[in-house]
Amino acid sequence: GGRRESQSASALAAAPEAPFIRPSGRASHYDALVVGAGFAGSVMAERLASSGRRVLLIDRRSHIGGNAYDEPDAAGVLVHRYGPHIFHTNSADVFDYLSRFTPWRPYEHRVLARVGDRLVPMPINRTTLNLLYGLDLRSDEQAEAYLASRAEPVDKVVTSEDVVISAVGRELYETFFRGYTRKQWGLDPSQLDRSVTARVPTRASTDDRYFTDAFQAMPLNGYTRMFENMLDHPGIRVETNVDFRDVEAEVVYDHLVFTGPIDEFFDHCYGRLPYRSLQFRHETLQQETFQPAAVVNYPDETVPYTRVTEYKRLTGQQHPCTSISYEYPCDEGDPYYPVPRPENQALFKQYEALALARHDVSFVGRLATYRYYNMDQVTGQSLAAFRRLTRTSAVSGLT
Ligand code: FAD
Ligand code: UDP
């Protein structure tokens, strides 16, 4: 292998010398090799380079940005290749950090759910109840009392079924959550941790926003442009279409940052960690708009897709055509979601024990730490991993 004998993080802090550049354009030695150019890897690469390290950032895909990658489609409509990505965070630190690389377009996400032939607001709120049941609930108190009358007490809220049933009762659970969840995960909500459906709240108010975070915005020129700005640094070399396994032995580096699936890094030695995948069906339509919201959810289990996204409503782009995508959940394919349930967490813990013993590697991101994290959480995790790494380096004179 090309890795150095001494693989401690302290090697990271070695004084930078002028790199020897091979005819290939690759330097002979890097302070860090970063695997994966999504949020986790790109933030690490930017931080390391900005503190004087030389970084090689690789991704096996043909592009940077990971699952947040966006691009104009054939018609020129900006779309998200891997499904709708809406930025929201309560962390001023994360928002300020990313604001170095992009201006923003204020955007508050709203979602409708198709129930029968109606479109009603999701998360369930007072308007949803009034529309669905022909009610006239006029205050938060009335809506709260109504929900309380339907809620079923659950002794110990453990699963994704418990969370919803204890808040809104079985009928609303079946209308909005059971079918959607079974499609999305291939599992019944009773087989998933409470944290999954707990992502979506229930409200007695008429607030129909999907998120209530303090900062909600879309990168004005798209995610890919934001990543380009982040990685535009003389200390960072980016190579796409490069798999870690193909260059592992060839590249010389002191520290490794790995943001791919953790079970793959350890050759699945304890067996495969389940990651849920999706197939996207992208379409461009010769009409200006398609649906009344950026995202419409389809909780009906007999509809094979979970949601439809109309991208112009996220990006604010003006265009005579509109582009949409359907999401079909599946097991095989690119790993998109860790699957939160006890047996998977136990398997992850086995891999995590191996990871903790590897002081020469930082495992960061949604796939490497097997956490159902949003973009802002991954950014925060990456900033923290960088601080930890440079703190434990014997010499941190470069920071
Ligand atoms: P990724 O983006 O998955 O990046 C990992 C990269 O590593 C990939 O590009 C992969 O090709 C590369 N890689 C893996 N193994 C190797 C290898 N061996 N060699 C080379 N390269 C490798 N978050 C939000 O905040 N808001 C949203 O609205 C939102 N919507 C989402 C919708 C969908 C459909 C999905 C799937 C996710 C959504 N997310 C959203 C979550 C968001 O995508 C993630 O939080 C974020 O992209 C994770 O970044 P990451 O760098 O950890 O992983
Ligand atoms: N969910 C649901 N019905 C909905 C929306 C969400 O049952 O209309 C459940 C489903 O299990 C989903 C989870 O809540 O996977 C989290 O939803 P979110 O919209 O956060 O999913 P993501 O955007 O991460 O795919």
Automatic annotation (TrEMBL):
It comes from the Bacteria. Transmembrane segments: none annotated. GO terms for molecular function: flavin adenine dinucleotide binding; UDP-galactopyranose mutase activity. GO terms for cellular component: cytosol. The keyword Protease does not apply. Keywords: FAD, Flavoprotein, Isomerase. This is UDP-galactopyranose mutase. It comes from Brevundimonas naejangsanensis.
